[in-house]
Amino acid sequence: MKHNNELAKVQVCDLSKNFGSLKVLENLNFSIKRGEFVVVVGPTGCGKTTFLNLLTRLIQPSSGELYIDGEPADPKQHSLSFAFQEPSAIPWLNVEDNLKFGLKIKRYPKDEIKKRVEQMLKLLGLEKFRRSYPSQMSVSSVQRVIIGRAFITYPDLLLMDEPYGQMDIKMRFYLEAEVLRIWKELGTTVVFITHNIEEATYLAERVLILSNKPTSIKEEVKIDLPHPRDFTDPEFVKIREYITEQIKWW
Ligand SMILES: Nc1ncnc2c1ncn2[C@@H]1O[C@H](COP(=O)(O)OP(=O)(O)OP(=O)(O)O)[C@@H](O)[C@H]1O
């Protein structure tokens, strides 16, 4: 069945998911616009990762449906890409080959691969590391490779699940800025999951706040502040505090 919201990249309709008697997601309805940067926040265990697993068809909904470009979500058909918490640079490949990896699997022509790898090395400032292996590089440079791998297929939809969960604040700020820069340059739709409300306020055009289980959308917060955002700007602080309150009081 085709779904007819032309502007929506992702459309979630009456989506519910139970694991046995545990009701996790209950009747979720929302959509994500093409090119939008959406951050999903919510209490621990409310089903954020479950939502991504449904979108990538790792698991099936109990009821309802998820659409990508108006078609039932299908990772074989839609151009999806992921960046998760675990470091995922391939240790035995150098930077160039790490970046090429996904493109080779998708059998892109050689000259296209070369063009994209050069573009990404430049975009990430990794040109001088092209022949280096992950073990020879700093953690932040390896993370840049991982971001590069996620974006290099020019995915229509990039899913990021707590990608910077374990990192110190300085590196987090740096990589958040990188993701924003590439998102703007390539026009990818990004769904970013985090526990960190400051990170959500820094990144998102729109924050979806999930409730406790059985989970529904408690509220959506649009953030119109220009990037790069200033963490000390009173407006920024106000939004961050507001989102924190929404998560606290369920
Ligand atoms: N395959 C499964 N079988 C049974 N229960 C599951 C399964 N996967 C997830 N759950 C349960 O569903 C709920 C939601 O899990 P999920 O990992 O999606 O939450 P989350 O919001 O991503 O959590 P966190 O904030 O800790 O990352 C949890 O209570 C979890 O124990």
From TrEMBL:
Keyword tags: ATP-binding, Nucleotide-binding, Transport
GO molecular function list: ATP binding; ATP hydrolysis activity
Transmembrane annotation, as ranges: none
One Pfam family per UniProt: ABC_tran
Annotated InterPro entries: AAA+_ATPase, ABC_transporter-like_ATP-bd, ABC_transporter_ATP-bind, P-loop_NTPase
ABC transporter domain segment(s): 10-237
SMART domains: AAA
SUPFAM superfamilies tied to this protein: P-loop containing nucleoside triphosphate hydrolases
The protein's name: ABC transporter ATP-binding protein
The species this protein was found in: Vallitalea pronyensis
